[in-house]
Amino acid sequence: MITRLVILTICLLKAATLPAESMDPTKLRSLISKDQIADKLKEVSAQIEQDYNGKDLVIVMVLKGSICLVADLIREVNLPLDLQTVQCSSYGARGTTRGELTVIGADRLQIHNRDVLVVDDIFDSGHTMVALLKALEEQKPRSLKSCVLLYKQDVPKVTEYRPDYVLFDIPNLFVVGYGLDFKERYRGLSDVCVLEAP
Ligand code: IMP
Ligand code: MG
Question: pLDDT tens digit string along 135-146?
Answer without folding.
Answer: 999 999 999 999
